[in-house]
Amino acid sequence: MAKIIGVTGGIGSGKTTLVQYFESLGIPVFIADDEAKKVMQLPQVISQIKSIFGETVFENEQLNRQQLAAIVFSNSEKLHQLNAIIHPVVQTQFKLWLDQHILAPYVVYEAAILFESGSYKICDYTITITASLEDRITRVMQRDSVSREQVLQRINAQWTDVQRIAKSDFVIDNTDTKIAKQEIDKILKNL
Structure pTM? Predict the structure, then answer.
């Protein structure tokens, strides 16, 4: 049975870069946020989103993710409702994916809200990726073409690094990617 390494961190901390490094080492990686985007296209999920958020978050029967994000990142109750729809389906998909990688010594489960969603409970180990607030803001503004205020709104909707670190087995500072990758090598040696 593969050991599950949960990787999390705030938006813009560089999780994607570091999980790509795990992949380069031959470790299978499941990215919960990517899977969430896929499951948001499923008819039963669309139906639930419409029942809570209405037709206004759809254009030509397509989910307008930017409009949905604007709603949920300004209203914690709406964010909780969306997560309650999406995360059980993502967990089901992860279990199916894990069955395909059962012989791997380790797999990585990457999720921005690993702790908030309760997904950490399925992990054997957890790693929190951190970076300075300014680095995170700059990365997200460049990546998503959003304003500083929009990035801060998303950051404020997530747990703090202090909250994540308190529940983590390991912490990697991703200020310097080369050093962060060396930290991953050390962690894997210790496991």
Answer: 0.90
